[in-house]
Write a structure and sequence with these properties.
Length: 218
């Protein structure tokens, strides 16, 4: 396993050594061979036994259908072992709330927070407004300092389109109380998305205009 990981890292170094001249190949002898991806699958359970985080990194370096399937099976059956790995959620959910994910959701109460952009995706209809997912998304957003929150204001405003239970609105209002600059940025983005046309005649059906007036009055 160490051998194929070293070979993968060496292949990445080749790109850094010659990013603009792919035809130039430095003399770095191969260790992993042509079947490194296939061999990596056979090491997945060994990596999991040593460190579940290592298994996730192994799958990231050598992606394949079987690797993803086997790793997802391990995550679903032993979720408590990967609660410190935020990237494991992407593998478990697969951009929605699958029917085989149910008992695992209670572990979201202890899961390491994901980055803000990914946390906002959990407000999408694909996740069904599940209470555990919404609570986790809010905790992930609130775990980041105010200085970071400025960078995802556009995504935050777009999340209002699917904010059926008011979680995003509450987050915006509470953050706006902490920073007047943040409040102004949110209001500007809301007004920019309140209409579908450039002449501001066709009101957006997402009720962003309502949220904008509510925040302005606050």
């Amino acid at each position: 396993m160490v051998q194929i990981l070293v070979e993968h890292e060496r292949s990445r170094l080749r790109v850094w050594l010659n990013p603009l001249e792919p035809e130039r190949k430095p003399h770095i002898p191969s260790l992993g061979g042509k079947n490194s991806a296939e061999r990596a699958v056979s090491f997945l359970r060994l990596a999991w036994a040593e460190s579940p985080g290592l298994a996730i990194q192994l799958a990231g370096r050598f992606p394949s259908v079987k690797m993803h399937s086997d790793l997802r099976w391990l995550i679903l059956n032993f979720p408590e072992k990967v609660i410190s790995e935020a990237s494991a959620l992407e593998i478990m959910f697969e951009a929605s709330l699958p029917s085989d994910v149910n008992d695992q959701l209670k572990y979201l109460l202890f899961w390491t927070p994901v980055n803000p952009t990914e946390a906002l995706t959990y407000f999408l209809p694909a996740y069904g407004n599940h209470p555990f997912i919404l609570q986790y998304a809010m905790r992930a957003l609130e775990s980041h300092p105010i200085d970071v929150r400025f960078y995802f204001v556009p995504q935050l405003v777009q999340a209002l389109r699917y904010d059926a239970l008011g979680y995003v609105e509450r987050y915006i209002l509470e953050t706006a109380k902490l920073s007047q600059l943040f409040a102004h940025q949110v209001i500007w983005n809301m007004k920019a998305n309140s209409y579908k046309d450039e002449d501001s005649q066709v009101v957006s059906t997402a009720n962003i205009a309502v949220h904008s007036r509510s925040l302005s009055n606050s």
